[in-house]
Design a protein that fits this description.
Blueprint (H helix, E strand, L loop, with lengths): L8 E3 L5 E3 L8 H12 L7 H12 L1 E2 L6 E2 L5 H14 L3 H25 L5 H21 L7 H21 L10 H13 L3 E2 L5 E2 L1 H13 L15 E3 L4 E3 L4 E3 L4 E3 L4 E3 L4 E3 L4 H26 L5 H6 L8 H32 L4 H10 L3 E3 L4 E3 L7 H9 L15
Antiparallel strand pairs: 1-2, 3-4, 5-6, 7-8, 9-10, 11-12, 13-14
């Protein structure tokens, strides 16, 4: 029987027992990379990725039952956001440059992770830390000025708590379809018992089931389940090896099929599906109301006598002292984030009004099968649209009862 791990020990990705004190030892890839760099040689393919994986595996903190691994994507927002905001508060031009660059950097990182199909906690960490840090600045710099009432601070705090509660609910199961072991076992037995013929492209198929599975994954063809009546559309997922109901989809980042999949949201690091779509909309709504209210209170305090919209663009005393400059910088940061989240909420509300998911809209654009409405803000596929009231009634009833056959499943 192995001895339990002490607080500074851990089991690495190769299954070997290591100690935090040896975090800088025994890294052949790093030694090779440094040697090649000193001699002016280029790195061999895959060396940089292996170095990053090794560093990420060794960044840990001591804990009771062994050192706990720290996700590196959590760290940058915690360190860089306060630094950038405090530097931006030093001068108007610095604030302009930094607040303009931040959205560009975030969008670039999103494009990078989306192209690599990687899951990351960067956006969730950025969102949660931004909320906490903005609330801290509000309490430290705005409230002590004495222009706010306790009821206003309490209202802002309650809005923040409600938003976090809705966000916690949105982080739960979005409606993952269960992968039965019998499907996996029968699929494996079917593949091993049949003769396998290799194609010219190197892909082996066996029998009609495998052919339909490959076609269903590659081209999105639908297949009919033998147990279902004619007219009910079902899709076969070759990766999960299951027959999924209408409007379900496979998330490449989560590796699971989700009921009524809308999209994978990087801000909550989870899919938005049938069971958490309502909570997702609720979290966005609470965020919008709380952020706008907090921006209004702050601008009324540091730019009294002007409306919030005018004060946002013209506040002569904003840089008279560092406290006002930091508050004004945070207001602009909140305004940029709120504008982005407001656009997401608007698209979501329009999609709900037309009973179309984000995934269905993208597929309709790809296949040229939908109508662009409202200047391209929404794509109406016409497949599930039953009118404004019926669409919202259907959305509000999501997840309230076990999935049953409905008129939307029949196409």
């Amino acid at each position: 029987m192995e001895e339990p791990l002490c607080c500074c020990e851990y089991v690495d990705r190769r299954g070997q027992r290591n100690h935090l004190a040896a975090c800088c030892c025994d890294c052949q890839d790093l030694d090779e990379g440094c040697e090649r760099w000193l001699t002016g040689k280029s790195l061999s393919p895959g060396t940089l990725e292996r170095i990053v994986d090794t560093v990420a595996d060794r960044v840990r903190i001591p804990w009771f039952a062994g050192a706990v691994k720290i996700n590196l994507s959590l760290v940058p927002p915690l360190v860089l956001l306060p630094v950038f905001l405090h530097v931006a508060a030093l001068h108007f031009l610095l604030g302009l440059v930094i607040l303009t660059s931040l959205p560009v950097v975030v969008l670039w990182y999103y494009y990078l992770t989306h192209r690599r199909k990687e899951r990351t906690l960067f956006f969730l960490s950025l969102g949660l830390f931004s909320l906490g840090y903005m609330y801290y600045v509000f309490l430290q710099e705005v409230v002590p000025r004495g222009h706010l009432e306790y009821s206003q601070v309490g209202t802002l705090t309650c809005g923040l708590i409600l938003m976090l509660a809705a966000l916690s609910r949105a982080k739960k199961d979005p409606g993952y379809l269960p992968i039965s072991s019998s499907n996996k076992r029968s699929s494996h037995q079917g593949l091993s018992s049949r003769s396998v013929k290799g194609g010219s492209n190197g892909v082996a198929t066996s029998g009609a089931a495998s052919s339909r599975a490959l076609n269903g994954e590659a081209k999105g063809y639908s297949r009919m389940s033998a147990e279902e009546p004619e007219g009910v559309k079902k899709d076969w997922c070759a990766k999960c090896q299951l027959v999924r109901p209408a409007r379900a989809g496979h998330c490449r980042l989560c590796g699971r099929c989700v009921q009524r999949l809308d999209h994978h949201c990087v801000w909550i690091n989870s899919c938005v599906g049938e069971r958490n779509h309502q909570a997702f909309i609720l979290a966005l709504s609470f965020f919008m109301l709380t952020a706008v209210y907090g921006i209004t209170l702050t601008l009324h305090t540091i730019c009294s006598g002007r409306t919030p919209f005018v004060a946002l663009f013209y506040c002569p005393g904003a840089y008279s002292d560092y406290s006002s400059a930091l508050s004004f910088t945070c207001v602009w940061y909140c305004a940029i984030v709120t504008a982005g989240m407001g656009y997401i909420l608007l698209i979501q509300l329009l999609n709900i009004s037309y009973n179309v998911t984000e995934r269905e809209a993208r597929l309709a654009l790809r296949d040229n099968a939908g109508r662009r409405l409202l200047g391209g803000l929404v794509i109406d596929t016409g497949q599930y649209n039953r009118g404004f009231l019926c669409n919202w009634s259907h959305f509000l009833s999501l997840g309230s009862s076990p999935p049953q056959r409905s008129a939307e499943d029949i196409v």
